[in-house]
Design goal:
The chain has 13 helices and 15 strands. It is of the alpha+beta class.
Length: 379
Amino acid sequence: MDSEGRTRAARDAELVTIGEFARLSRLSARALRRYDELGLLRPALVDPVNGYRYYDRGQAGTARLVAWLRRIGMPLVRIAEVTALDDAAAAAEIRAYWARVEAETAARRELAAFLVDRLSAKENVGMGDIDTDGRGPATLGIRYAALAHPGAVRGIQQDTAYAGARLLAVADGFGAAGAEASAAAVDALKPAARGAVDADDLLGALQDAADGAARAVREAVAGGGAPAESGSTLTALVWTGSRLGLVHIGDSRAYVLRDGRLLRITHDHTLVQSMIDDGSLTEEEAASHPQRALLLRALAGDDGEPGPRPEVRLHDTLPGDRYLLCSDGLSAVVDEAALTRAVVAADGPDAAVRDLVALAGDAGGPDNVSCVVADVVAL
């Protein structure tokens, strides 16, 4: 069949030219050619002689969807996956993607606010380090304990809990190589916590260490099957002697007990948390949501896209503060009122971690549980 015959056949099949399809889909012919080159939207027919592209009218909806997804910044690989799904599944994927974007934006917003506060307070540098008697800079230290338990149901331990003089960390592994991933994430932070760390240099050092943890997890899971399905959360505090540097990604948590109140200082990177944030779900509804453990951000293997970066920031400390880091094996089964009672009542970090693991066990111990408790003390 010659070119004219193919063109006639295309018209008989109710296909339209790229110009007509551009008007139909409200996109430019240039954009359509680009989508074809990227494999996002193939024409229904391409004339092998003159290269003319012909489209089915039914492709207009897909063309507009591709354009909209590009406008919200979705990566090309993920767009290809979304356009292959039915409407309900595509909607779920878009919601999950945007929740991740908002979580990352919130982390950057918190860092920006911290930097503004820090730079605005430069004229008062040192005032926060004066002790209550006005005698000069207070010397602070930490006393700490860590404990991990496989729980009553899980046959393997994929959590890692670590407490040292300068590093407190909890990592919750998942997937076939979860144990290796959580161990690698924590081990990658240890060099950053060796020796004295200047508080003014800590933020940059934390980011370097966090990026190193992400690389370490990718390497740890690379040899297993489906590496993108294995990974770890990571919540860690690096002690400088006056401040704590926070590294956080996923749904493990960090709390501080101050003046009798247990305050959470991390934000879960989960789909359920994003739904709480946008008002579509209450805290009570979240507790029984079937996707409450679905992570939006974590350290994981290579899936062809740049992985999310852990958030980092500095946290001021006071003598008498008690810090709790834990995996969701504790926070998901023990409410914050019970956590507060246990953390307040415990006589020291060792007793606290034992009591907290026991609480998770009393709640059925459905998951691995790990926790770290540290007290800030005046030396």
